[in-house]
Amino acid sequence: MKAVCWYGANDVRLETVPEPKIINPKDAILKITSATICGSDLHIYDGYIPTMKKGDILGHEFMGEVVDVGREVKKLKVGDRVVVSSIIGCGECFFCKQQSWSLCDNSNPNGWMQEKVYGFGTSGIFGYSHLFGGYAGAFAEYVRVPFADHGAVKVPHGIPDEKLLPISDAFPTGFMGADMCDIQPGDIVAVWGCGPVGLFAMRSAYMLGAERVIGIDRVPERLQMARDFAKAETINYEEIDAGEALKEMTGGRGPDACIDAVGLEAHGMGLEGFFDEAKQTIRLETDRPPVLRQMMVACRKGGTLSIMGVYGGFVDKMPMGAAFNKSLTFKMGQMHGQKYMPMLLEKVVNNEIDPSQVFSHTLPLAEAKQGFEIFKHKKDNCIKVLLKP
């Protein structure tokens, strides 16, 4: 089969690789009908995620048709149309039973690698390095889905892939970001990053009762998308200091909650931004934290910081004094997809939201390299790229 494989920073190639097979009786094999490039994939593309190996198949946001199942798969059959969570959970461990699927004890065979840095291992993730299990990703014609009864959600026929595909990752990630804010009636929520996850976080904040949502970015078409799709107020941080703007827009109090939908390649301004990028380039710092710093200072006293942008290692120059003395609450983590996917699917089926609006480009799998470049550099008004095998 054909698959998009990683060979180094900014080097992905369409290769011929063996088709996946049933390894465990709880596996299913999926024929991919649609996949999409996620902002987290850019961290791999740019070379910032460790333990990648040449030839690894990328892709973690996908859907398709079941073509084979293991003998212990009970909920799926050949021919079912499914959307699959990017997070792999066993469904049986302490954390899965608590709906904390990304903390699964059993789905990551390489958890021992994480223990050295994180103290404990976490769940496996499709196509996201050997640190997260070394699973083959979904930028391919077929993919093996472990623990398929727990990760694959059956979806109706007759609804276009574009409306259903974001339920795999971007939509539940954004929703979890808003859910962790403990939004109360009248709250003001600020979201850093107006890409797909940020847009879904904004929509989700309104779903959960926020009175006002403010999106922060520097790309004009993404800010416009935040206004049109998410009905958010916006700040272009290249034109005005985001912290000062938020203070003015909230009557001097600051937003009740702040969501980071950017992650480890956040763009800083001025000398601070240059310093972070330079340190990350030579690995004196693994992640760039300007969004975290801004949120810690901008959030109101007693507010909540929700971090859904991916971080992988270490940051410095953090204003912990501000966070401590303002009594801020931090919540963060990889999304618990299986917890949110059924509810979000119902909203799509009932036409409460049309997630397909975030897709700006559709490309064949053979043009995945071009898709990465368009998405990375925000060319041609790109918001999100859909890949078709």
Automatic annotation (TrEMBL):
Protein EC: 1.1.1.-
InterPro entries: ADH-like_C (IPR013149), ADH-like_N (IPR013154), ADH_Zn_CS (IPR002328), GroES-like_sf (IPR011032), NAD(P)-bd_dom_sf (IPR036291)
Alphabetical UniProt keywords: Metal-binding, Oxidoreductase, Zinc
Superkingdom of the organism of origin: Bacteria
Keyword NADP in annotation: no
Cofactor: Zn(2+)
Matching CDD domains: FDH_like_1
Boundaries of every Alcohol dehydrogenase-like N-terminal domain copy: 25-156
Gene Ontology terms for molecular function: oxidoreductase activity
PANTHER family in UniProt: DEHYDROGENASE, ZINC-CONTAINING, PUTATIVE (AFU_ORTHOLOGUE AFUA_2G02810)-RELATED, ZINC-TYPE ALCOHOL DEHYDROGENASE-LIKE
Family: Belongs to the zinc-containing alcohol dehydrogenase family.
The protein, known as: Zinc-dependent alcohol dehydrogenase
Species name: Floridaenema flaviceps BLCC-F50
